[in-house]
Design brief:
Largest sheet: 2 strands, antiparallel
Distance between the termini: 37 Å
Order of helices and strands: EEHHH
Number of domains: 1
CATH topology: YggX-like
CATH class: Mainly Alpha
Shape: globular
Structural class: mainly alpha
CATH architecture: Orthogonal Bundle
Radius of gyration: 14 Å
CATH superfamily: Fe(II) trafficking protein YggX
Number of helices: 3
Length: about 90
């Protein structure tokens, strides 16, 4: 049986992650409070951030921005969208 968490993003009790995503306090907070479904939402959102902002996560500045957006996505008011961002149209 899956480990259940009260998901902070979705607001329901759902299956939690099978792993701590980062070896730090934030990773533990995510493990304790974020569902698998919300984590997949973050992964999709993070790909958009990386692409739209052309983040090079090997740099300290990009990693700091990524971490700030990650924390805001789950524990703040949400991650910001890039200025002028238009989501791709759904395929028919």
């Amino acid at each position: 049986m899956a480990r259940m968490v009260q998901c902070v993003k979705i607001g329901k009790e759902l299956p939690g992650l099978d792993f701590v995503p980062f070896p730090n306090e934030l990773g533990q907070r995510i493990y304790d409070n974020v569902s698998q479904q919300a984590w997949r939402m973050w992964l999709d959102h993070s790909v958009m951030l990386i692409n739209e902002y052309r983040l090079n996560l090997a740099t300290k500045e990009a990693q700091q921005f990524y971490d700030e957006q990650l924390e805001a996505f789950f524990f703040g008011e949400g991650s910001q969208l890039p200025p002028g961002y238009v989501p791709p149209k759904a395929k028919s």
